[in-house]
Amino acid sequence: MSQPKIIAYLKPTCGWSQGVRAILRKYQLSYEDRDIINVPAYREEMIRKSGQPFSPCVEVDGEMLADISGQELEEWLIAKGLVQASDRPVDVPTDQGCSGEHHSEIPVRINF
Q1: Which of these CATH numbers, 2.20.25.110, 3.40.30.10, 1.20.1630.10, 3.40.50.450, describes 6-87?
Q2: What is the model's pTM?
């Protein structure tokens, strides 16, 4: 199977984004990780390309998969024949957001 061109529009610490990253690692797929929080131009690009503001979004060979979970991405990759199903475990959930505890651990700095 040839390597598809993948651009992933992700948040640095989002559970949904971590699930997408886990699936891409599971299948050893190279991808460009575009941080939509720290690089506003990437968020604007994601909205323009996907037609909506929700993430994660993953573009595979020019086809935009909007507001997709890692589980949905895996199912799509298998259905398209881009990967073969694997029992290899992943290190994070692929079908849920962050827990409340996760966000309480992230330091916040407010500048006035």
Answers
A1: 3.40.30.10
A2: 0.85
